[in-house]
Write a structure and sequence with these properties.
CATH class of the largest domain in chain A: Alpha Beta
Distance between the termini of chain B: 16 Å
Shape of chain B: globular
Oligomer: heterodimer
Distance between the termini of chain A: 31 Å
Order of helices and strands of chain B: HEHEHEHEHEHEHHEHHHEH
Bound molecules: iron/sulfur cluster
Strand order of the largest sheet of chain A: 3-2-4-5
Helix content of chain B: 40-55%
Helix content of chain A: 25-40%
Radius of gyration of chain B: 18 Å
Shape of chain A: globular
CATH class of chain B: Alpha Beta
Largest sheet of chain A: 4 strands, parallel
Number of helices of chain B: 12
Number of helices of chain A: 9
CATH architecture of chain B: Alpha-Beta Barrel
Strand order of the largest sheet of chain B: 1-2-3-4-5-6-7-8
Order of helices and strands of chain A: EHEHHEHHEHEEEHEEHH
Number of domains of chain B: 1
CATH architecture of the largest domain in chain A: 3-Layer(aba) Sandwich
Largest sheet of chain B: 8 strands, parallel, barrel
């Protein structure tokens, strides 16, 4: 899932300060699960902003709502009226939702209520950790199922650096050293020989280094005929 | 001979080699380098020039090499993967070779979190092994990772670092094997304080025959104070400093003298350790002590090949 964190209230207040009608839009997907921009968080933000405004004598109309998935046009379309009525959209989804609204209504100002941070997983209640950097050429079948690109601070490909201490990462001693973990996992699986091979440089052109990526699945695309039919039905 | 660098000649002649380290200044002033070059000339076979060590911005290692070469000193330039992608690494390798640098030490590099530019974007396009692998292909075949073939192959003697004291310990000889397979002609180890543990690693290294395929320089840090020993034990990840060494430094009436004595004793032990082909003395911020240690350890005069 995509893990995000809410921006500090002061920063949000500053971003929306110039506007009267604020539409606060959350999302029920990843950001709800990581407790950053679901229904509860949207309601909390609306009341916190209301309190803040009351204290400063400011009047601002805050309209809170939550979409199933903010990164999909179909869901956004359903609340088009409320979007068009507002002066600013405060998106409480990950930046993908914020950008979807921005791209659909280019004349509208959209501000991010969250800092979108990682492709991660919930480790325990309240803890999410980064596990993938979307390199576009997954190699974890050779590393015991553990991603060295995301989980090693230096994205090493040939085993732990010289700073691996008691199985912890030199960059943050509270975190596991990814390569220590890979070594242990491969040992458990009886596949330690995977630690021996010299891995040549990774080809990063499948990652963002190769430029912005767009994935096209020809067989899934609509024909121009189908597109027209869908448009007409809407 | 791969390059005929002085360091390579010392190894080829079967002599016990000595390398030391010079930290470039945090300014554009070449004087500290010239000063150290003059002072250290003749006390080691080649001198490492660190590459923005601990991610602190310093005069570049290649420019430093040009400066000390004028003083008649042979450099080993350190090249980390932290700040340069493969384009810059190859370009700097070619540039270094063009100005007469012959020894290059391939390193992944300390993370920028330890330095004075914590907000830097990290590169890590390569790690030290892929850097070695690439430079080795460049010197042998002129072949670049992107498939292009260079008009002329660079001549370079390739080194690497290895830390026998980082976890997982059982992988550390394998890691050296990988670096040797990737092209490392010599290796400088992390500073040794726990000689028994180093011996264990050397056992493993010897049993794999790695000491026959590469030249191992045992790393040493002479300590000036008891605080330095404690600092390395507590603050430097991947460094093991036994309590008896800390106690010895603490109880000494003159800590600096004790540090020198300890370093000389270590060199004596290493001289007779099978498979160890030299020492690498990292006198961090204490460069001037190297000639004295080399003298006391009976390592002077250094062999000369003219
Ligand atoms: S190897 Fe690439 S795709 Fe696979 S988990 Fe790591 S970053 Fe993600
Ligand atoms: S300690 Fe481990 S995880 Fe951290 S940078 Fe080194 S190899 Fe990567």
């Amino acid at each position: 899932m995509i893990v995000a964190e809410r921006k500090p209230l002061g920063e949000i207040a500053e971003m929306i300060a110039p506007y009267e009608k604020v539409c606060v839009i959350g999302c029920r997907s990843c950001v709800a699960i990581c407790l950053a921009g679901g229904e509860k968080e949207v309601n909390m933000l609306v009341s916190a902003m209301g309190l803040l405004n009351r204290r400063t004598g400011r009047t601002q109309n805050l309209d809170g709502l939550v979409l199933e998935r903010q990164c999909e046009k179909e869901w956004v379309k359903e609340v088009e009226d409320r979007i068009l009525e507002s002066d600013v959209i405060l998106s409480m989804s990950c930046s993908l939702g914020a950008q979807t609204i921005g791209d659909m209504y280019p004349e509208k100002i959209v501000v991010p209520g969250l800092n979108t941070a990682i492709f991660g997983v919930p480790e325990e209640q309240g803890v999410w950790s980064e596990k993938c950097l979307g390199c576009g050429d997954c190699i974890i079948h050779t590393t015991g199922g553990i991603c060295p690109i995301a989980r090693c601070a230096k994205s090493m490909l040939n085993g732990p650096c010289g700073g691996s201490s008691d199985g912890h990462c030199e960059v943050n001693l509270e975190l596991d050293c990814a390569w220590y973990a890979i070594h242990e996992r491969l040992k458990l699986q009886g596949r330690l020989e995977l630690m021996d091979m010299v891995r040549p440089p990774k080809e990063w052109n499948t990652s963002h280094s190769g430029g912005r990526r767009v994935i096209v699945r020809e067989e899934a695309r609509l024909t121009s005929h189908q597109k027209r039919a869908t448009e007409e039905s809407q | 001979m791969k390059t005929g660098s002085n360091l390579e000649k010392v190894f080829e002649a079967g002599k016990f080699a000595v390398t030391a380290e010079i930290g470039p200044p945090q300014s554009a002033n070449p004087e500290p380098l010239i000063h150290h070059a003059k002072m250290l000339n003749g006390s080691a076979d080649a001198f490492n020039l660190t590459d923005n060590q601990t991610a602190v911005v310093r005069l570049s290692s290649i420019a430093s090499a040009a400066i000390i070469m004028k003083e008649g000193i042979e450099p080993v330039i350190q090249m980390t993967c932290r700040d340069r992608n493969r384009i810059a690494l190859q370009s700097d390798l070619l540039g270094a070779c063009a100005i007469g640098v012959k020894n290059v030490l391939c390193l992944t590099g300390d993370h920028q979190i330890f330095g004075n530019e914590k907000a830097a974007k990290s590169v890590f396009d390569f790690d030290s092994v892929s850097e070695l692998y690439t430079f080795n292909k460049l010197r042998n075949e002129g072949l670049q990772p992107g498939g292009n073939v260079l008009e002329e192959k660079p001549e370079v003697y390739l080194g690497c670092a290895e830390n026998p004291f980082a976890t997982p310990y059982e992988f550390r000889a394998t890691r050296l094997a990988k670096k040797v397979n990737a092209g490392a002609d010599f290796v400088q180890t992390q500073a040794i304080f726990d000689m028994d543990m180093f011996e264990l690693w050397m056992d493993e290294v010897r049993s794999r025959g790695l000491d026959k395929k590469t030249h191992i320089l045992a790393g040493l840090i002479p300590m000036k104070t008891a605080g330095a020993a404690r600092y390395m034990k507590n603050k430097v990840p991947g460094m093991i400093v036994p309590k008896r060494i800390i106690d010895r430094m603490k109880n000494a009436s003159d800590a600096a003298e004790e540090g020198i004595k300890l370093c000389v004793e270590q060199i004596d032990t290493l001289k007779s350790m099978k498979g160890v082909h030299g020492v690498h003395i990292m006198a961090v911020k204490w460069e001037e002590i190297v000639p004295r240690i080399a003298e006391m350890a009976g390592l002077l005069p250094r062999p000369s090949f003219d």
